[in-house]
Prior knowledge:
By secondary structure, the protein is mainly α.
Amino acid sequence: MRHRRDGVRQAVPRRGFGLTYNWAASSDFKVPLIPMTILGSSLAVLGGLLIGLSALLLLLSIGRIAGISGIVFGLGARDATERGWRLAFLAGLAVGTLLMLPIDRLAFAPRQGFPLWALLCAGFLVGYGSRLGNGCTSGHGVCGLGRRAPRSLAATFTFMTVAMVTVLILRHTLGVLP
């Protein structure tokens, strides 16, 4: 990492396997950022296909929507069969993430440059917003749009617009985000 005059760290380009990598560094380990070349975009497409496939399989097998916030909030259900498939789905997410570790360590890079209170507040606001909107990005953006649900279109438009405005203000106007 290189420090600019204003103290902000910059990624230092490195060469490897014929590609230029940017390295994100933490105090514990260095992580190569996969460049958006054919390899990087192929992994993104593969990930999107796997997300869509898992949502489709859940819908076809038991008729449920793969909205993560709804699955998590439904863990308190009294019916053991309801709790069972929810735990299995969340366990699959965790196992899939662990299987990705040898391929992309960036998935496990710690978030840097933000105080813990800000991360906790952001997590709370995301959880509150997903309950307020009756679903999260996976429920509305992946499953709802696939089912052509008008409320999911409205919800997806809303959270994408708010996300873009937030980044515009915090990163480009105030310079708060790295």
